[in-house]
Design a protein that fits this description.
By secondary structure, this protein is an alpha+beta fold. It contains seven helices and 20 strands. The chain has a six-stranded mixed sheet. β12 and β13 form a beta hairpin. α2 packs across α6. It is globular and about 65 Å long.
Length: 363
């Protein structure tokens, strides 16, 4: 293992389960255990457990407006009700996405900000540089995070955390006592299935991992299955589908931008809205089982018109699917395209998102 890679507290458990490990966002992470297709199928039908301890968590406490936090993100922090969370972006001055993240309103004057692993150190520095007051703390090292996802996850969670979990609506969370410590249980996830994200002190996360795996309905799943699951429902992956060179308007994520408030990058996005984007995100299906891959060319009438940013074989659809960027005039549903790379060529058709519409996420 590369000694520069960080390891989650559960790293030893992954190795004991003979997981295939690989670098991801600077961390040594499990890609698969039993196999990507098997783990994907288990999440779609049962309950899959993911180690997400690599994600970053920050706490801000203070006055959101006076402290400057209200102007940091593309959404309003002060209007999030306590016990709720909200998704959106941290942008640069050009409107490019520094990161996509979720803010959890813990109290009237306190939030937890959950960010991507690879971008966490830079995110903290950028946010801190924009603040005018309040207390801002990086709690990543002290925080463990597990995701339990799948249509049976509610039954498993109720048995461990209690009946209060059963009625938890989408994007709401509660604070509960588990294994003698305070934990946050949130009705959120990245798979398109009913699921929960659990934040618990890092010294207890291995014990919780072991406890959840005692349930026969639960199996561990790696980042390979997670990537297939998220792409089937059209969720963007930071570093592939979105980055600092991509704006929310190009990425089809303008609904997560509140133009009624101030935020860094707003002026650039307003100019882009007026001028129109030069490229836009499209979802496409290919005619066979072959997988389109990141950086493959997207062509139309023999001309390269864009590139693939994410692509996989979808077990639920039985065909290759992908996301990429093309000229806006080629983004209409039903538009024929060709995905190519060296000697590989695949016929593709622009389609609607999500690719897979049968998930239990809102059950």
């Amino acid at each position: 293992m590369d000694t520069k890679l960080q390891a989650t507290p559960i790293s030893g458990r992954h190795r004991a389960l003979n997981a295939l490990m690989a670098p991801f966002g600077g961390w040594d992470m499990p890609i698969q255990y039993e196999g990507i297709i098997a783990e994907h199928s288990w999440c779609r039908s049962q309950a899959a457990l993911f180690d997400i301890c690599h994600m970053g968590e920050f706490i801000f406490q203070g006055d959101f407006e006076a402290g400057g936090l209200e102007d940091v993100f593309t959404f309003s922090v002060k209007t999030i009700p306590p016990g709720r969370s909200r998704y959106g972006f941290l942008l640069n001055e050009q409107g490019g996405i520094i990161d996509d993240l979720i803010v959890f309103r813990l109290a009237e004057d306190k939030v937890m900000i959950v960010v991507n692993a690879a971008t966490a150190p830079n995110d903290f520095a950028v946010i801190q540089g924009r603040l005018k007051g309040g207390t801002f703390t990086d709690i990543t090292a002290a925080t463990g995070k597990l995701d339990l996802q799948g249509p049976l996850s509610r039954y498993v969670m109720v048995e461990i955390f209690g009946e209060e979990v059963a009625t938890l609506p989408y994007f709401k969370f509660i604070t509960v006592n588990i294994l003698g410590v305070e934990a946050i249980v949130s009705r959120t996830g990245y798979t398109g299935e009913l699921g929960y994200e659990i934040f618990i002190p890092s010294e207890k996360v291995c014990e919780l991992w072991d406890l959840l795996l005692t349930d026969e309905r639960v199996k561990p799943a790696g980042l390979g299955a997670r990537d297939v699951l998220r792409l089937e429902v059209g969720y963007s992956l930071y570093g592939s589908d979105i980055d600092e060179e991509t704006t929310p308007l190009e990425a089809g994520l303008g609904s997560f931008v509140n133009f009624e408030k101030n935020f860094v990058g707003k002026d650039a996005l307003l100019r882009l809205k007026e001028q129109g984007v030069a490229r836009t995100k499209v979802a496409f299906e290919v005619s066979g089982r072959r997988s389109p891959r990141h950086h493959y060319d997207i062509c139309s009438a023999g001309e390269t018109v864009g590139n693939v940013t994410s692509g996989v074989f979808s077990p639920m659809l039985g065909k290759g699917i992908g996301i990429g960027f093309v000229k806006p005039q080629l983004a209409a549903i039903g538009t024929p395209l060709t995905v190519s790379h060296e000697r590989i060529s695949m016929e593709a058709t622009v389609c609607e998102l999500p690719f897979f519409k049968g998930g239990s996420v809102r059950s």
